[in-house]
Amino acid sequence: MRADLEIIQQWVQPGDHVLDLGCGDGTLLDFLQKERNATGFGLEINPDHITTCMGKGVRVIEQNLDTQGLDNFDNGMFDIVLMTQALQAVRRPDKVIDEMLRVGREGIVTFPNFAHWRLRWGLTLSGRMPESDALPYKWYNTPNIRLCTFKDFEALCRQKGIRIKSRRVVDGQHQNSWLARAWPNLMGEIAIYRITRETTS
Amino acid sequence: MPDALPSDSVGLVSPKTIRFDAPLELACGQTLAHYELVVETYGTLNADASNAVLICHALSGHHHAAGFHSLDDRKPGWWDSCIGPGKPIDTNRFYVVSLNNLGGCHGSTGPNSLNPDTGKPYGPDFPVVTVADWVASQARLADHLGIEQWAAVVGGSLGGMQALQWSLDFPDRLRHAVVIASTPRLTAQNIAFNEVARQAITSDPEFHEGRYYDENLVPRRGLMLARMVGHITYLSDASMGEKFGRELREEAYKFGFDAEFQVESYLRYQGERFSEVFDANTYLLMTRALDYFDPAYEFGGDLSKALAPATCEYLVLSFSTDWRFSPARSEEMVNAMISARKRVNYAEIDAPWGHDAFLIPTPRYTDIFTAYMDRVAREAGA
């Protein structure tokens, strides 16, 4: 099992109402529906992904976060709002995070760390925009337009008064490693954050 | 005429008429003492009757949704692109039921049927029926066919309204509602177009207050105009532009008012053909059913409250260039479903054909429809 699915699953309570922003082919929601009896649905814009979700029985709504936002969702209507590997691809990640925590009690966010040593090393040595397993694009065709580091994300949370309930750092294959635990912002490739505006856990 | 029946066709089919003798109370307060529905079925009902799919037709539709009545038929049923072996509504897996609604003019009891009280056609005395009335009559049809619960109720446009109404009136009797190119209520503009169509019919001198059957007349002109204006709303500016542009039938302007542009002669042809096969009173009735449809009305306009009883899962599909029932109308419906915590799926299909797109198999439409119905079939053990 992918380590990120395993980690996220632990943070979802049985029967939770879940919204997955940029749900892709529905792997995560399918997993949560089966393992956690989660209800809810995903938002997606990729036509093939939408079709795949519908065939799987993962509920999906075609909705573009950049142009439509989450205006059509009521405050606090979800237990958990998920966003895996999509934060760096939206136009205003700060607003998306605000919206996640308006419509959901808790948010789970994963994104690639732009301060990973290999990216730092690549930029330093070659002087060119880095590429990696987690970021396999050229600078001109990348959908990842808002790259940040773990430290950047945590600074944004502090500034917004958002509480980080948990953070887990994994490598590009979503595996745990002691190096990533020891020096997350240098050795971690992908972080999984659990965030909330609620003051009590 | 097809030389041979295509392998993905349900083949030769024949309709049958089912008579219902239990009185049906209608929304208008009147009661139909008995009535008949004309029905076609495709595929085989499985042992536990879990694989039945109901097809609800739109304004000018009828029971003949798929296959051919004879080898001489020029065209198959109106939704043959989506119903058949290997098609989105796969007749190898589903038992498909398609009917002509009450008030229709293709064999089910309607304005052109004989009124048992007078021995003459009902004409304007046929009660104005609503989407909810249709759904009630379809539920009796389900009883008759031994179908306790539909695997899915499916419809486009006015048919989608029936699928939605099913989910509210008989929540336990369907597992999925597929609502395509539809709307939770007509806008003022939609009603306005319907009114122009009705005025065209009722102002035709041959209409005779709806008793034209007694005079052996048909208000052809009115029906033709009604269809012409309706037809414009089914297409998009772009698709009309692509099909006709400003093309003339002859080389130069003739400085007169005959059909000089191709689009004019196309509309006239469509209107004329329609006036030969459709009943004027039925057209009035169907447009009124459209106007009146508004399940949120009793709930102060709050559709999410109206949706409270629903338990089925929804698939809502819209088409990018549909301006009759635009994607925004579908999104209104989807948002109310989300708010009411219903299970819902939604996609807006990019297609150039306006409202008519729901009848035209484009790759993405077919893919989504197939994927979803495949899942419905798996759940039904079909």
TrEMBL record, chain A:
Show the InterPro entries listed in the entry.
Methionine_synth_MetW, SAM-dependent_MTases_sf
Task: State the Gene3D superfamilies in the record.
Answer: Vaccinia Virus protein VP39
Pfam families, per the entry: MetW
This protein's superkingdom? Bacteria
- Residue ranges spanning the membrane: these are none
What SUPFAM superfamilies has UniProt attached to this entry?
S-adenosyl-L-methionine-dependent methyltransferases (SSF53335)
* Name of the molecule in the record: Methionine biosynthesis protein MetW
Origin species, per record, is Marinobacter fuscus
What is the gene name? metW
From TrEMBL, chain B:
Q: State the SUPFAM superfamilies in the record.
A: alpha/beta-Hydrolases
> Which enzyme type, at the first EC level?
transferase
Q: Which BP terms in the Gene Ontology apply to this protein?
A: homoserine metabolic process; methionine biosynthetic process
Ranges for domain AB hydrolase-1 come to 51-359
Matching entries from InterPro entries are given as: AB_hydrolase_1, AB_hydrolase_fold, HAT_MetX-like
Assembly and binders? Homodimer.
Per its UniProt record, what NCBIfam families does this chain match? Answer: homoserO_Ac_trn (TIGR01392), PRK00175.1 (NF001209)
- What is the name of the protein in this document? Homoserine O-succinyltransferase
Organism this protein belongs to: Marinobacter fuscus
* Lineage, broadest ranks: Bacteria, Pseudomonadati, Pseudomonadota, Gammaproteobacteria, Pseudomonadales
Recorded name of the encoding gene: metXS
